[in-house]
Amino acid sequence: MTENRANSTAPATAPQHSVEGFVKEFLRELHYGQGVTLERASVNDQYLALARTVREYLMARWLETVRRQRDAQAKSVAYLSAEYLLGRQLDNALLATDLSEIVEEGLASLGIELGTLREQEVEPGLGNGGLGRLAACFIDSLATMSVPCIGYGIRYEYGIFRQTFVDGFQVEKADSWLTLGAPWEFPHPEAAVTVHFGGSTERYTDDDGVERSRWVPTWDVRGVPYNYMVPGYQNGRVNTLRLWSAQATEAFDLAIFNSGEYVEAVRSQTFAENISKVLYPEDSTPQGKELRLQQQYFFVACSIRDFVENVLPADFDLHNLPERIIFQLNDTHPVIAVPELMRILVDEKKWDWDEAWAVTQKCFAYTCHTLLPEALEVWPVALLGKLLPRHLEIIYRINDDFLAEVAQRYPGDELRLRRMSIIAEHPERSVRMAFLATIAGSKVNGVAELHSQLLRDKVLPDFSEYWPDKFTNVTNGVTPRRFVRLANPALSDLITDAIGPGWITDLGRLREMEPLADDQEFREKFRAVKAHNKHRLSALLQRRDGITLPGDAMLDVMVKRLHEYKRQTLKVLHIVSLYERIVSGELDPTTIPPRVFAFGAKAAPGYKMAKQTIALINHVGRVVNADPRVKGALTVVFPPNYNVTLAETLIPAADLSEQISLAGKEASGTGNMKFALNGALTIGTDDGANVEIRELVGDENFFLFGLVEPEVDALVTAGYRPAEFYEENATLRRAIDLIASGAFAGGDRTVFEPIVSNLLHEDRFLVLADFQAYLDAQDRVDEAYRDTEAWTRSAILNVARSGFFSSDRAMWDYIDRIWHSRPVVSR
Ligand code: AZC
């Protein structure tokens, strides 16, 4: 027995790190894993065998990481996130294991092209946008920094929908990412945990004569963990991402089977499995749907149970929990974890309330990702009480205790109590999840300097007054492995030739490139990289969508979720205005640098205005691209289904990055960082992390425009009337009139009427107020672009000065300011 156990902890040995070693292993996987011969293997067979082979190279490291972590008893980060927008796995695994060349050569010797197999992978789109991609960057960084971390989330059977266009309108298709096999996951049905729902609570007296509450639930589901490797960059470490899949429990099934209700039994199974069926395709707006709350509770209940019972040693004293774990709450989606931990400690472990609360408060920290008040999640008390009655009781108790404290500090301040209560009374009684997270969390952070400041001053002012030290900032970051090294091999080689490879794990070192901005030869090489990346994009778009890009043009890119606050409409107005001015003879198209306007954006399926905007972009594109009068000068492209994979080719090709949200609305943005790091210049407002990008790269290398947040505030308070801007600005008027005329809808004035009337009468995000400033900034862009050498210099400086935006740095900030965890290998 003992011997067995000793054997079982011995790390597996990886296959040989050589072409022969790889080929042998690959063929073995093909034959014994896929059950096919090389001659008969389909591309999918080959891809699956390749993925499994690469996985084997990581396996020994993974097992070793788990073992070391157990032995070290170090503090871990449990990142709780309803979304992980991972992107393709193969290349990242090849990079982590330094196998790319070996694999390329090995496959070639078998007549297989690595590129073909790469394309076979369907990316796991288990997230909507920024928040989900951030989670993926963070776990990559933690693995690379050798910090113990488990990512917890949901294994959605269907991720974010696949976007198609029909007559320019978005049509959603199911994302069946699992259909062709899922070689990167390791299911562990034997480690399933049961999660309860519904029912009621009851009071009872325990054996020690203490009066207690307990939950009497009515139904349950089983959570099956699926493990994924999170390899660090060539450092021998592999962390774990554990995603939960919902299954019907046997007890539930059997009862019905026994009563002969076969169809009912299968139906109940479907009901249970619905929980992890599909990702809510909503971005920055909460859904308030029961299934969504089920998802949230499902995955955090599984995760806490897993950590307490499986990750910690069996005899672990939970009083020491804060020394072993910090649960980082990625927005409010996992906040129901707070009452769940309280329930475990108080109801199951029979602790005193105060004792449990003291421990709980130390185990959580909360990151807020928004500024839009309507995006803060609330759950109707009626719904929460129906699904999780005991949790509701616990939330009430937390609230009562908290408000009693506040009342002591501010005697007689009734209004303040009402403002700070976790329970909102209007428009319906509901639980404000951000308040619960703030009260329970040891720290609360925003995701960029400006955002954190506005979070303190505008979103949670009473709380930041109450606990000034609880609030902090950690500016977002992106992983340089995926978004520079993998996405932009040509630039990576250029950088590495210039300053060595250290930047890949220490991105601040990009600074060493700064002097090269003044080196003519280097600038030429830098331009060659951009040109190469544009060719690569052009080939991809041709293959993928049949889109042809014109040869030599400035590539102006706006990619992000479609949201009114992000103001894709402002971009469209710019294009329409240029078009109108050229067609009307006011502007000579040969006097402006040719531009390609590229869009990528998904709209939430129920978000009408966003879907209209997509149609408008497509329709404007159709007219502009077909008009000989602007040919060569203006081109609009909108490849469907923008995702991580497309971003990896699109961003490195860009010259201009559009970050034009209304000041005070975009929490941070992370696309903005990816563009700067890949040598695009930004045209942007004073919003989110744009502020920090501009500070770092320098005003002269950034095109700033638009109202600043206090001006926005003042204008709205004074009573904003968009029609006035329309009346007073002829250029703007002509652009809007052209849209209103039906010119982009085959003469039909009704199609885009809602957009026009919204702009003229409501314009919540001040598009018209910022229009002229935006056009002026675009003129500055044109002028700057004409000076090729100066532009290249700015682009190089953007790269050299953006090292701060590495997610490695962001993780160090979390460690310093929030987690206080000690990495296994120190800084
Ligand atoms: C996003 C913010 O809108 C974006 O500004 C930020 O960069 C990103 O989070 C990461 O912090 N928020 C979301 O994506 N929110 C949701 C609910 O999807």
UniProtKB/TrEMBL annotation:
InterPro entries membership: Glycg_phsphrylas, Glyco_trans_35, Pyridoxal_P_attach_site
Co-factor requirement: pyridoxal 5'-phosphate
Cleaved signal peptide residues: none
SUPFAM superfamilies listed in its UniProt record: UDP-Glycosyltransferase/glycogen phosphorylase
Its EC number(s): 2.4.1.1
Catalytically driven reaction(s): [(1->4)-alpha-D-glucosyl](n) + phosphate = [(1->4)-alpha-D-glucosyl](n-1) + alpha-D-glucose 1-phosphate
Enzyme class: transferase
Regions annotated as coiled coil: none
PROSITE patterns, per the entry: PHOSPHORYLASE
Keywords for the protein's UniProt record, in alphabetical order: Carbohydrate metabolism, Glycosyltransferase, Pyridoxal phosphate, Transferase
General function of this protein: Allosteric enzyme that catalyzes the rate-limiting step in glycogen catabolism, the phosphorolytic cleavage of glycogen to produce glucose-1-phosphate, and plays a central role in maintaining cellular and organismal glucose homeostasis. Phosphorylase is an important allosteric enzyme in carbohydrate metabolism. Enzymes from different sources differ in their regulatory mechanisms and in their natural substrates. However, all known phosphorylases share catalytic and structural properties.
Family designation: Belongs to the glycogen phosphorylase family.
Protein name, entry field: Alpha-1,4 glucan phosphorylase
UniProt source species: Cellulomonas dongxiuzhuiae
